[in-house]
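Possible regression after last week's pipeline update?

I re-ran a chain I had predicted before the update to compare outputs. Posting the input and the new output here so someone can diff against the archived version. Not blocking, just want to make sure nothing changed silently.
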Amino acid sequence: KADQSCITEMVKAFDDRSYKFLIKPPPTSWMIKKAIEKEKLSGHRSNNSGKLSLRSLYEIAKIKKELDYDLVNVDLESICRTIAAQCGSMNVTIVPEHDAPTQIIKPILKI
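New output (post-update):
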């Protein structure tokens, strides 16, 4: 089975017959599911769907910042907080690594 990627494409057409073709990165939920190696998550709020390392969360944020033109002017910490909030709504627990610096962990996990 080939590893499939999910991307969002947009075409903007203008009156002068020119167009702009935009490719956005995969949705954050897709990246989180790939990182925790699950295709489907539990729909029940009481079930933990998986664990995502803080390093994986940071890597997803870097990918989103680099590839998503809407996030070019947004700082990386804000993107990490947004992804952490989405993990919460998906019942995915964020697990800090032992070697992660505390200045990164505290703002994201609100310790």
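Follow-up from reviewer: compared with the archived run. The chain has a mean pLDDT of 80. Marking as no regression found.
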